Amino acid sequence: MSLSAASTATTRRRKLTDRFVTALVTAAFLVALIPLVSLAITVVSNGIARFDPEFFSSSMRNVTGEGGGALHAMIGTLLITLAATIIAVPLGLMTSIYLVEYGRGRLAKIITFLVDVMTGIPSIVAGLFAYAAFVLIFGPGVRMGIIGAVALAVLMIPVVVRSSEEMLRLVPGELREASYALGVPKWRTILKVVLPTSMAGITTGVMLAIARVIGETAPLLITAGFTASMNYNLFSDRMQSLPVYVYTQFANQGNPASAFIERAWAAALLLILIVMALNLVARLIARRFSAVSR
């Protein structure tokens, strides 16, 4: 009887402990959710007022008060981020392939160390690096969209390398060995077996890297500057971006100040929606590639 009572007491104590921990985790989750919900409500309530056709179809050229829009900032963000992706993805992917498939010596350790260091550098440092590199070629005071793209690429590369490296390491070795047994060379095995198998994770990592840099303000403020006019040329003159647009609208308020604040909130809401869309696209692409691989 004493053994049965002890067993019952132990079971009851475990259930109570489980309920307590479950309640504690749930409470912590709800507390962590409060700032997120509050932020979402604040941005939506303040930014939805300027979600009108004019905001998406006009720039700030010759606008000193009410009206105007963020078309030039949207185009600038699209071009700069696209150029950064074109620069960062091939470099990051090839680096991860080298580390997983070929790197075995001191060089691989040095590259891994440098990637770890790059992961933690402040974004302003990436902007200063890109600006300093182009100043040596074009002289002081240069501001161009391509410089901002290089700065964002510096921030994207370590994210792409790390995510791609993890996905490549998850590919079973048996697949590689089966390909080698059929006489397929290593480079073709990587191209036809390893990459397609890990493409879902690689694509997700790339999309998350884009979402990570698309909201950067400091490096673009230094490298691409800001302007009120449209600019479709990455290699000429200043180029506006959405994060810098939000900053300039808040920092340089005119008359009436409410018009500038409304435009800033609307651009912030648009930026959040873009990041959410990128995360959603990453999940959809990953699911599609996973289905194809199966």
From TrEMBL:
<feature type="transmembrane region" description="Helical">
    <location>
        <begin position="144"/>
        <end position="161"/>
    </location>
</feature>
<dbReference type="InterPro" id="IPR005672">
    <property type="entry name" value="Phosphate_PstA"/>
</dbReference>
<keyword id="KW-0592">Phosphate transport</keyword>
<keyword id="KW-0813">Transport</keyword>
<keyword id="KW-1133">Transmembrane helix</keyword>
<dbReference type="InterPro" id="IPR051408">
    <property type="entry name" value="Phosphate_transprt_permease"/>
</dbReference>
<protein>
    <recommendedName>
        <fullName>Phosphate transport system permease protein PstA</fullName>
    </recommendedName>
</protein>
<feature type="transmembrane region" description="Helical">
    <location>
        <begin position="193"/>
        <end position="214"/>
    </location>
</feature>
<feature type="transmembrane region" description="Helical">
    <location>
        <begin position="20"/>
        <end position="49"/>
    </location>
</feature>
<comment type="function">
    <text>Part of the binding-protein-dependent transport system for phosphate; probably responsible for the translocation of the substrate across the membrane.</text>
</comment>
<feature type="transmembrane region" description="Helical">
    <location>
        <begin position="69"/>
        <end position="99"/>
    </location>
</feature>
<keyword id="KW-0472">Membrane</keyword>
<keyword id="KW-0812">Transmembrane</keyword>
<dbReference type="InterPro" id="IPR000515">
    <property type="entry name" value="MetI-like"/>
</dbReference>
<dbReference type="InterPro" id="IPR035906">
    <property type="entry name" value="MetI-like_sf"/>
</dbReference>
<feature type="domain" description="ABC transmembrane type-1">
    <location>
        <begin position="74"/>
        <end position="282"/>
    </location>
</feature>
<feature type="transmembrane region" description="Helical">
    <location>
        <begin position="111"/>
        <end position="138"/>
    </location>
</feature>
<dbReference type="Pfam" id="PF00528">
    <property type="entry name" value="BPD_transp_1"/>
</dbReference>
<comment type="similarity">
    <text>Belongs to the binding-protein-dependent transport system permease family. CysTW subfamily.</text>
</comment>
<keyword id="KW-1003">Cell membrane</keyword>
<feature type="transmembrane region" description="Helical">
    <location>
        <begin position="264"/>
        <end position="286"/>
    </location>
</feature>
